[in-house]
């Protein structure tokens, strides 16, 4: 029989490989201009496909726990890898915006969301004594995937052209996700001693607790602030801060570094102090970033500092939240419980864009987000873990 230690390590290796490939979807902005030319539509129409992808990703994440229960982590991850390849193959053949939304939005997003949360949660459950560090490794690989595939896809675009790039990207990602999935094993259920049993909530039990909705609001708010600012960072620099194109464009690198730093620093820190306190620190960082945008005179330093604070908070919160949800509702149902909260990722992305469209200015949108961040910080300071009663059904 294969030792438990070997299964854990193989699962970790497979998760990191798969997460790296799954993170490649965040290179989508590289293709907006080329697809707009190909389809003869405005760039904004093409860019909207990434919003659909984000929402589909969140929806798939919310049901990936059910799929794991029925089919196991390996089969679901392999299917996600094949679906990702199919989505990119069909995207290369897209001849209309509607087909692009279907293939690059719904299908690719569903594939990515299915593999992302499932593999992350399964790996965290293998390492209950190092939940924060494992989350940091896994989600760090997801973040690095966007950086690594940026160079891969740029090189492919230069030498192979738009359609062939989608085909090569799909082939590489499929091999990595499928290969990673074959290395994984389903994590065992945690031992049913009294404390663990009383701390394991089913999804139905979790949503009946006010703590679930408090955690969901905090997560949605951080995702809204992070995804909105990251998505329009260059425009904020040029239109709101009055900076040059080159300075505003460099925001992409600032965000990538701060995002990765947040994932690693706060992920490791969550193993040394309560996860909810780490989230409070992340919220303070995002609040500081929003305050800089609203209350200081914009220059290059303040612009980069604000983006760095917000990206650091976003990356760190995404990393810490699986451990936080397991602290509140147990490890055995983590994929389903966190999956439901993870819907806030897609909803938050959509809400940020809708608020910005309704209010019509960066400053008004920042003010709303600042208010939500203040409320979330207050919730993070007063929330308590649900009462543990062993008699609960």
> Uncertain runs with pLDDT below 50, 5 residues or more?
192-196
CATH topology type of the largest domain: Growth Hormone, Chain: A
The topology string of helices and strands comes to HHHHHHHHHHHHHHHHHH
What is the CA–CA distance across the termini?
35 Å
Classify the helix fraction into a percent range: over 70%
What is the number of beta strands?
0
Let me know the average pLDDT. 87
The Rg value, from CA coordinates, equals 20 Å
Helix and strand content put the structural class at: mainly alpha
Helix count from the secondary structure assignment: 18
Name the CATH superfamily assignment of the largest domain.
MFS general substrate transporter like domains
Strand content: under 5%
Q: Any guess at the CATH architecture of the largest domain?
A: Up-down Bundle
**Count of individual domains:** 2
Global geometry: globular
Task: Sketch the major β-sheet.
Answer: none
**CATH class descriptor name of the largest domain:** Mainly Alpha
How would you sum up this structure, described in words?
This protein has 393 residues and is mainly alpha-helical. The protein folds into 2 domains: 4-183, Growth Hormone, Chain: A (Up-down Bundle); 195-382, MFS general substrate transporter like domains (Growth Hormone, Chain: A), CATH 1.20.1250. The chain is built from 18 helices and no strands. The protein has helices spanning 4-22, 32-39, 43-71, 73-92, 97-126, 131-160, 162-183, 194-198, 203-207, 210-231, 233-240, 245-249, 251-269, 275-295, 300-329, 334-341, 343-359, 362-382. It is globular. The protein starts with a helix and ends in an 11-residue tail after the last helix.
């Amino acid at each position: 029989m294969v030792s438990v230690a070997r299964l854990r390590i193989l699962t970790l290796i497979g998760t990191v490989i798969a997460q790296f490939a799954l993170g490649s979807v965040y290179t989508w902005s590289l293709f907006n201009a080329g697809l707009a030319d190909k389809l003869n539509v405005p760039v904004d129409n093409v860019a909207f496909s990434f919003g659909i992808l984000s929402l589909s990703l969140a929806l798939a994440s919310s049901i990936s726990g059910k799929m794991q229960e029925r089919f196991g982590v390996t089969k679901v991850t392999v299917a996600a890898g094949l679906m990702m390849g199919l989505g990119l193959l069909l995207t290369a053949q897209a001849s209309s915006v509607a087909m692009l939304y279907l293939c690059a939005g719904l299908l690719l997003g569903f594939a990515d969301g299915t593999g992302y949360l499932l593999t992350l949660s399964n790996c965290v459950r293998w390492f209950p004594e190092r939940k924060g560090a494992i989350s940091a490794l896994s989600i760090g690989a997801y973040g690095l995937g966007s950086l690594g595939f940026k160079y891969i896809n740029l090189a492919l675009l230069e030498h192979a052209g738009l359609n062939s790039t989608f085909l090569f990207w799909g082939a590489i990602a499929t091999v990595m996700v499928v290969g990673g999935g074959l290395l994984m094993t389903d994590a065992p259920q945690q031992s049913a001693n009294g404390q663990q049993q009383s701390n394991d909530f089913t999804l139905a039990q979790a949503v009946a607790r006010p703590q679930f909705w408090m955690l969901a609001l905090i997560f949605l708010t951080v995702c809204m602030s992070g995804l909105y600012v990251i998505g329009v960072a260059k425009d904020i620099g040029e239109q709101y801060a009055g900076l040059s194109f080159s300075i505003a464009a460099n925001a992409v690198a600032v965000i990538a570094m701060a995002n990765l730093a947040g994932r690693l620093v706060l992920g490791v820190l969550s193993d040394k102090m309560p996860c909810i306190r780490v989230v409070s620190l992340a919220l303070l960082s995002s609040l500081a970033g929003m305050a800089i945008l609203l209350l200081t005179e914009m220059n290059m330093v303040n612009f980069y500092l604000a983006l760095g604070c917000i990206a650091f908070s976003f990356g760190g919160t995404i990393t810490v939240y699986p451990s936080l949800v397991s602290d509140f509702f147990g490890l055995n149902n983590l994929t389903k419980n966190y999956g439901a909260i993870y819907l806030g990722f897609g909803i938050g992305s959509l809400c940020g864009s809708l608020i910005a469209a309704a209010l019509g200015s960066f400053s008004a949108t920042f003010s709303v987000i600042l208010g939500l961040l203040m409320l979330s910080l207050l919730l993070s300071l007063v929330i308590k873990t649900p009462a543990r009663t062993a008699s609960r059904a």
